[in-house]
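Table 4 source record.
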Amino acid sequence: MENIKEGKEQIIDEELVTINIDGKECKVPKGLSVLEAARTMNIEIPSLCYLKDINEIGTCRVCVVEIEGMHSLQASCVYPVREGLKIRTNTERVLRARRTAVSLLLSNHHRECLTCIRNLNCELQNLADNLGIRNIPYTGEMKDYGFFENNPAIQRDYNKCINCRRCMSICNKIQECNVFSPLERGLDTVIAPAFKKDMSEVTCIMCGQCVIACPTGSLTEKEHIDEVMKAISDPEKYVVVQTAPSIQVTLGEMFGMPIGTFVAGKLVTSLRRIGFDRVFATDVTADLTIMEEGSELVERLLHEPEKLPLLSSCCPAWVKFAEHFYPEFLPHLSSTKSPHEMCGALVKTWYAKKYGIDPERIVSVGIMPCTAKKYEAARPEMVSDGFRNVDYVLTTRELGRMIRRIGLDFANLPDDKYDEPFDQYSGAGMIFGATGGVLEAAVRTAHKLITGEEMSVPDYEEARGQSGLKYGTVTLGDRTITIAIAHGTGNAKKALEMYKRGERKFDYMEVMACPGGCVGGGGQPILGGRDHKHISLSYRHNRADTLYNIEKGKEIRRSHENPRIKQIYKDFLGEPLSDVAKEYLHTTFVDRGKHPYLKQ
């Protein structure tokens, strides 16, 4: 497997230089920023606008330091180290400058901290507390920029924006959607979509990476906790909930547990105590997705080669990206619904009939790592037999807040198990949460479908890892196919452009919109706050590693071996790609164009 590293690489000379920070001497690579050099020495310099390798612009002035021999303070995030540099990070002058910078930001910031969704997990709030800011000496007219929420996934409160440009950088450099840009000038500057449109009117793919990057409550998911709690309290409603694979290794972070802690049992217990009637694992329908998508891959390989390459379609943000920027590739997308939507469709059809429940009573809720799942659930195509497949989507963060709301001690909850029939899943369904997991799972089943034999070693190690774009080959019997794996839509763009130019060819490509896959989704816990080191993208591999480690211990590791999947096909679907399967498990796509507001 060939790995192609994507993203901005900081250029650092191999030469080591000796520097002194706060009286502590250390050797660090020449060219490293003062900020990163200090962090290698466990000296924390606060910052707001800085995102390693993504947004290194030195605009917030919070990270300023004093350097011997220089008249003015320097922004440590953009100042490179050199031999003999002597730096002070906590002098009275430095602290006064930081307090002034933060106080100026707060002077035009709508300080509704107690009711803000980011309360106690806001970088600006924490920084103000650390600096001991107790009053704002700067007064004047506070601007009202407006509040935008005309879409099902993400809301934008410009009154809490501090113009750090982190949302713009991650959208432009990593996702390459270019939704945000600076509008107006001077004190009137706002970071917003073109013409200050709502995100539903531009090429936003609802991935939520901007939400993860935002240091305040300016960008947040649209919360649906109250609606779900109301449904649970209604005795006439039968409320079922499904949880995505990656939630099992991320929810614990909301309660101070180490990154990547496996909490599936406690997750199920918490949902029962909240009051859901049934708790299902989306991992089961991830296996179902593999059965349909794997069969689709085999069908195209053997009988419809003109429809190659096959592109995965379980990530709604990637699907929307393709609909905006690459509509010519829409016929190549797998027509299978995502596991989330498959589960919703089956619950209100097959499951409702099997257990004698009126589908009109069923309220279907998904706990997802992704803000784009909220958008996906609202798509007009996601309806089965006249019923919306999924009624509400809650992010991992929303579930964490819901658990706190009812006062559960999550870390000390006992473990419980998922409910039948969406309770037993294979390791293949579990690794959907990590980049490369869908393709690896599909290869395991495609090998069986083509050769009639199991892969001798189910692990496809070449599909794993955090490189942004990977290419390789897979042998399926006497046939060798070329595969590609991309996470982050900017990497998908690179792969598709190379394909169009004839520089690269592949038969099957998996795309996950979020860096790291679903473990890095826009609805996952925000690990900023006081610990700035977790704002970077580097921690996401810890979550993925846990999924793979747990998966290796599972008795069933292939989707086609899952007895629950066999039962669903026997009772309802017949076989993969049957007419019934296509009616309930497959969907269509829409050419949305690069300028959707012109189509309205």
